Amino acid sequence: MKLYTFPFAPNPIKLDVFLGEKKLEIPRQMVNLAHGEQNTPEFLAINPLGALPVLELDDGTRLCESLATIQYLDELHPEPPMIGRDPLERARVREIERTIEFGVLARVARIIHNANSPLPGVKGIPEVAAMERARLPKLLGIVDARIGEHPFVAGAEPSIADCTLYAALRFAEFGKVEIDPGCRNLHRWLASFRERPSTKPPTS
Ligand SMILES: N[C@@H](CCC(=O)N[C@@H](CS)C(=O)NCC(=O)O)C(=O)O
Questions:
Q1: Which of 65, 68, 109, 144 could be a cystine partner for 183, CB 3.0 to 4.6 Å?
Q2: pTM (2 decimals)?
Protein backbone atom coordinates (compact mmCIF):
# COMPACT_ATOMS: atom_id res chain seq x y z
CA MET A 1 0.00 0.00 0.00
CA LYS A 2 1.01 3.61 -0.50
CA LEU A 3 -0.61 6.80 0.78
CA TYR A 4 -0.48 10.02 -1.23
CA THR A 5 -0.89 12.73 1.35
CA PHE A 6 -0.05 16.19 2.68
CA PRO A 7 0.12 16.32 6.47
CA PHE A 8 -1.27 19.87 6.84
CA ALA A 9 -4.59 19.42 5.00
CA PRO A 10 -7.76 18.36 6.82
CA ASN A 11 -8.81 15.24 4.92
CA PRO A 12 -5.27 13.82 5.08
CA ILE A 13 -5.17 14.69 8.81
CA LYS A 14 -8.48 12.89 9.33
CA LEU A 15 -7.00 9.72 7.82
CA ASP A 16 -3.69 10.15 9.68
CA VAL A 17 -5.49 10.32 13.03
CA PHE A 18 -7.49 7.21 12.14
CA LEU A 19 -4.27 5.36 11.19
CA GLY A 20 -2.67 6.54 14.44
CA GLU A 21 -5.59 5.28 16.53
CA LYS A 22 -5.41 1.93 14.71
CA LYS A 23 -1.60 1.90 14.95
CA LEU A 24 -1.30 1.27 11.22
CA GLU A 25 1.71 2.49 9.27
CA ILE A 26 1.53 2.97 5.51
CA PRO A 27 4.39 4.30 3.38
CA ARG A 28 3.67 7.85 2.25
CA GLN A 29 4.32 10.01 -0.74
CA MET A 30 3.95 13.73 -0.15
CA VAL A 31 1.97 15.80 -2.66
CA ASN A 32 2.44 19.48 -1.77
CA LEU A 33 -0.98 21.10 -2.14
CA ALA A 34 0.40 24.57 -1.39
CA HIS A 35 2.66 24.20 -4.43
CA GLY A 36 -0.19 22.94 -6.62
CA GLU A 37 1.31 19.47 -7.07
CA GLN A 38 -2.23 18.00 -7.05
CA ASN A 39 -2.84 19.63 -10.44
CA THR A 40 0.14 18.18 -12.31
CA PRO A 41 -0.63 15.69 -15.12
CA GLU A 42 1.27 13.03 -13.13
CA PHE A 43 -0.95 13.41 -10.08
CA LEU A 44 -4.18 13.85 -12.07
CA ALA A 45 -3.40 10.46 -13.63
CA ILE A 46 -3.44 9.08 -10.07
CA ASN A 47 -6.57 10.96 -8.95
CA PRO A 48 -8.46 12.94 -11.59
CA LEU A 49 -10.13 14.87 -8.75
CA GLY A 50 -6.75 16.43 -7.93
CA ALA A 51 -7.33 15.85 -4.22
CA LEU A 52 -5.87 14.05 -1.22
CA PRO A 53 -5.65 11.63 0.45
CA VAL A 54 -5.32 8.73 -2.01
CA LEU A 55 -4.67 5.19 -0.83
CA GLU A 56 -3.04 2.99 -3.46
CA LEU A 57 -3.43 -0.74 -2.87
CA ASP A 58 -0.81 -3.32 -3.83
CA ASP A 59 -2.78 -4.29 -6.97
CA GLY A 60 -2.85 -0.63 -8.10
CA THR A 61 -6.45 0.07 -7.05
CA ARG A 62 -6.79 3.60 -5.72
CA LEU A 63 -9.22 4.87 -3.10
CA CYS A 64 -9.80 8.62 -3.45
CA GLU A 65 -12.40 9.43 -0.77
CA SER A 66 -11.13 9.65 2.80
CA LEU A 67 -14.24 8.18 4.45
CA ALA A 68 -14.38 5.25 1.98
CA THR A 69 -10.69 4.64 2.70
CA ILE A 70 -11.28 4.76 6.44
CA GLN A 71 -14.19 2.32 6.20
CA TYR A 72 -12.12 -0.03 4.02
CA LEU A 73 -9.23 -0.02 6.52
CA ASP A 74 -11.64 -0.39 9.44
CA GLU A 75 -13.03 -3.55 7.89
CA LEU A 76 -9.52 -4.93 7.36
CA HIS A 77 -8.47 -3.97 10.89
CA PRO A 78 -11.56 -4.07 13.11
CA GLU A 79 -9.68 -3.53 16.40
CA PRO A 80 -10.03 -1.15 18.08
CA PRO A 81 -13.53 -0.50 16.73
CA MET A 82 -13.76 3.06 15.42
CA ILE A 83 -17.31 2.89 14.02
CA GLY A 84 -19.21 1.52 17.01
CA ARG A 85 -19.77 -2.03 18.22
CA ASP A 86 -23.36 -2.78 17.17
CA PRO A 87 -25.75 -1.57 14.46
CA LEU A 88 -27.22 1.28 16.51
CA GLU A 89 -23.83 2.47 17.77
CA ARG A 90 -22.50 2.31 14.23
CA ALA A 91 -25.41 4.37 12.94
CA ARG A 92 -24.95 6.95 15.70
CA VAL A 93 -21.20 7.25 15.08
CA ARG A 94 -21.76 7.63 11.34
CA GLU A 95 -24.51 10.16 11.96
CA ILE A 96 -22.39 12.50 14.09
CA GLU A 97 -19.36 12.01 11.84
CA ARG A 98 -21.41 13.13 8.82
CA THR A 99 -22.78 16.08 10.80
CA ILE A 100 -19.23 17.14 11.64
CA GLU A 101 -17.97 16.62 8.08
CA PHE A 102 -20.71 18.64 6.39
CA GLY A 103 -21.56 21.03 9.20
CA VAL A 104 -18.12 21.87 10.56
CA LEU A 105 -15.23 20.65 8.39
CA ALA A 106 -16.72 21.56 5.02
CA ARG A 107 -17.96 24.87 6.43
CA VAL A 108 -14.57 25.77 7.93
CA ALA A 109 -13.01 24.89 4.56
CA ARG A 110 -15.46 27.15 2.70
CA ILE A 111 -14.69 29.99 5.09
CA ILE A 112 -10.95 29.62 4.63
CA HIS A 113 -10.99 29.08 0.87
CA ASN A 114 -13.29 32.05 0.36
CA ALA A 115 -11.45 34.35 2.77
CA ASN A 116 -7.80 33.53 2.23
CA SER A 117 -7.15 30.16 0.60
CA PRO A 118 -3.74 28.56 1.02
CA LEU A 119 -4.26 26.83 -2.34
CA PRO A 120 -2.57 28.54 -5.27
CA GLY A 121 -4.89 30.34 -7.66
CA VAL A 122 -8.05 30.05 -5.53
CA LYS A 123 -9.87 33.37 -5.53
CA GLY A 124 -12.55 33.36 -2.89
CA ILE A 125 -15.88 35.13 -2.60
CA PRO A 126 -15.85 37.13 0.68
CA GLU A 127 -19.68 37.02 0.93
CA VAL A 128 -19.59 33.22 0.96
CA ALA A 129 -17.00 33.27 3.75
CA ALA A 130 -19.20 35.65 5.75
CA MET A 131 -22.32 33.55 5.21
CA GLU A 132 -20.56 30.36 6.30
CA ARG A 133 -19.00 32.10 9.31
CA ALA A 134 -22.50 33.09 10.42
CA ARG A 135 -23.75 29.51 10.09
CA LEU A 136 -20.88 27.79 11.90
CA PRO A 137 -21.86 28.50 15.56
CA LYS A 138 -25.13 26.56 15.31
CA LEU A 139 -23.32 23.42 14.18
CA LEU A 140 -20.57 23.84 16.75
CA GLY A 141 -23.28 24.08 19.42
CA ILE A 142 -24.83 20.82 18.23
CA VAL A 143 -21.48 19.02 18.35
CA ASP A 144 -20.71 20.59 21.74
CA ALA A 145 -23.99 19.28 23.14
CA ARG A 146 -23.36 15.82 21.69
CA ILE A 147 -19.93 15.63 23.34
CA GLY A 148 -21.39 16.72 26.68
CA GLU A 149 -19.34 15.22 29.48
CA HIS A 150 -18.03 12.36 27.35
CA PRO A 151 -14.31 12.00 26.77
CA PHE A 152 -14.86 11.43 23.04
CA VAL A 153 -17.38 12.71 20.52
CA ALA A 154 -19.45 9.53 20.39
CA GLY A 155 -19.00 8.47 24.00
CA ALA A 156 -16.41 6.50 25.94
CA GLU A 157 -14.15 5.48 23.06
CA PRO A 158 -12.51 7.24 20.12
CA SER A 159 -14.32 6.93 16.80
CA ILE A 160 -14.14 8.26 13.27
CA ALA A 161 -16.13 11.27 14.52
CA ASP A 162 -13.10 12.32 16.58
CA CYS A 163 -10.86 12.00 13.52
CA THR A 164 -13.10 14.32 11.47
CA LEU A 165 -13.60 16.81 14.30
CA TYR A 166 -9.89 17.01 15.02
CA ALA A 167 -9.16 17.65 11.32
CA ALA A 168 -11.84 20.35 11.22
CA LEU A 169 -10.64 22.18 14.33
CA ARG A 170 -6.98 22.01 13.31
CA PHE A 171 -7.94 23.59 9.98
CA ALA A 172 -9.95 26.23 11.84
CA GLU A 173 -6.88 27.06 13.93
CA PHE A 174 -4.74 27.27 10.81
CA GLY A 175 -7.22 29.62 9.12
CA LYS A 176 -7.93 31.62 12.30
CA VAL A 177 -11.62 30.69 12.21
CA GLU A 178 -13.00 31.32 15.68
CA ILE A 179 -14.47 28.40 17.58
CA ASP A 180 -17.01 29.91 19.97
CA PRO A 181 -15.38 29.98 23.44
CA GLY A 182 -18.84 29.16 24.82
CA CYS A 183 -18.50 25.65 23.37
CA ARG A 184 -16.79 24.43 26.52
CA ASN A 185 -17.16 20.72 25.84
CA LEU A 186 -15.66 21.16 22.40
CA HIS A 187 -12.65 23.06 23.74
CA ARG A 188 -12.15 20.55 26.56
CA TRP A 189 -12.35 17.73 24.04
CA LEU A 190 -9.78 19.40 21.75
CA ALA A 191 -7.33 20.06 24.59
CA SER A 192 -7.52 16.42 25.60
CA PHE A 193 -7.67 14.82 22.13
CA ARG A 194 -4.66 16.70 20.79
CA GLU A 195 -2.52 15.00 23.48
CA ARG A 196 -3.14 11.60 21.91
CA PRO A 197 -0.21 10.07 20.01
CA SER A 198 -2.51 9.67 16.98
CA THR A 199 -2.43 13.44 16.43
CA LYS A 200 1.36 13.63 16.20
CA PRO A 201 2.61 14.01 12.63
CA PRO A 202 3.52 10.61 11.18
CA THR A 203 7.20 9.88 10.68
CA SER A 204 7.07 7.18 7.95
N1 LIG B 1 -14.22 14.27 -0.18
C2 LIG B 1 -12.80 14.18 -0.36
C3 LIG B 1 -12.21 15.58 -0.33
C4 LIG B 1 -10.75 15.58 -0.66
C5 LIG B 1 -10.20 17.00 -0.64
O6 LIG B 1 -10.89 17.95 -1.00
N7 LIG B 1 -8.94 17.12 -0.24
C8 LIG B 1 -8.31 18.43 -0.19
C9 LIG B 1 -7.37 18.49 1.00
S10 LIG B 1 -8.28 18.46 2.52
C11 LIG B 1 -7.48 18.64 -1.43
O12 LIG B 1 -6.73 17.76 -1.79
N13 LIG B 1 -7.60 19.81 -2.07
C14 LIG B 1 -6.78 20.17 -3.17
C15 LIG B 1 -7.47 21.11 -4.13
O16 LIG B 1 -8.68 21.31 -3.99
O17 LIG B 1 -6.78 21.60 -4.99
C18 LIG B 1 -12.20 13.28 0.73
O19 LIG B 1 -12.79 13.26 1.82
O20 LIG B 1 -11.21 12.61 0.49
A1: 144
A2: 0.97
Alpha helices in 23-125 (DSSP H): 41-46, 66-76, 87-100, 106-116
Residues 97-119: tens digit of each pLDDT: 999 999 999 999 999 999 999 99
- For domain 2-76, give the CATH superfamily: Glutaredoxin (3.40.30.10)
Q: Cα–Cα distance between 149 and 156 in angstroms, integer?
A: 10
pLDDT at residue 50, as a whole number:
98
Ligand 1 centroid to Cα of residue 36, in Å, is: 12
Torsion angles phi and psi, residue 155, rounded to 5: 135, -130
Out of 52, 64, 107, 160, give the residue to mutate to test ligand 1, the one with the largest number of ligand atoms within 8 Å of its CB.
52
Atom of ligand 1 nearest to the CA of 167: 10
Residue 169, SS3? Answer: helix
Question: Is the CB of 52 inside a 6 Å radius of any atom of ligand 1?
Answer: yes
Query: Residue ranges of the domains in the chain?
Result: 2-76, 87-198
Looking at domain 87-198, its CATH architecture is Up-down Bundle (1.20)
Instruction: Say whether pLDDT at 201 is over 90.
Output: no
